[in-house]
Design goal:
mainly alpha, 195 residues
Length: 195
């Protein structure tokens, strides 16, 4: 989202560390909006850069799958006495490992979705805090939380949101995330969570 309409313009020359304090109509809300916009822009930049690497990984996975299929077809055409006895077993292992890697690779889809939710939340919060008629009202905050709650599709996101809204500290939230991550590591591979 573009926050330019929320932020004052200044004709004074500025440096990175002074731009936020030289505004003629400086308000805490405008500074919050600037920092939230910065966070959103940094996430967008990181996601854009990671897309390039992920595209290369996808091509590599596709190449591995094609190579495995080609080797399997070749193995079927080769007489049993002509090739190594364990070629079929090795090909099966390659297929299984590639399939497991593809399932594990779904983390990126989940990551981009979750970061998209964070970006939206930051943008919504920036606009919200700049509207004093809303940000000063408890009922408006409840509406804001309700709007943000609807974004979350994964169980991890919903649990974390619930914890934070109920007043958990950042340390408690981090502990919960670490426990969830350990649970995921212990789960059998090959399962796909739809989100």
């Amino acid at each position: 989202m573009d926050f330019a309409h929320l932020l004052p313009n200044s004709t004074e020359p500025t440096t990175d560390d002074t731009v936020m304090v030289r505004a003629i109509s400086w308000t805490p809300e405008q500074q919050i909006a600037r920092l939230l916009a910065l966070c959103e822009a940094q996430m967008e930049s990181a996601l854009s850069e990671s897309d390039v690497a992920v595209e290369a990984l996808v091509k590599s996975f596709a190449g591995l799958i094609e190579a495995g299929q080609a080797l399997g077809a070749l193995n079927e055409k080769t007489p049993a006495a002509a090739g190594p006895a364990d070629l079929a077993q090795q090909l099966d292992t390659l297929r299984k490992q590639t399939a497991a890697a593809v399932v594990a690779f779904q983390f990126y889809d989940k990551l981009t979705q979750r970061l998209g939710h964070v970006r939206y939340s930051l943008s919504a919060l920036a606009m919200f805090v700049c509207d004093r008629s809303k940000s000063g009202e408890r009922e408006q905050w409840k509406r804001m939380f309700s709007t943000l709650r609807r974004l979350y599709r994964t169980e991890e996101e919903r649990q974390l949101f619930r914890l934070m809204v109920e007043g958990a500290s950042a340390d408690e939230a981090r502990e919960h995330i670490q426990q969830s991550t350990q649970t995921l590591r212990a789960a059998p591979t090959g399962e796909v969570e739809l989100f």
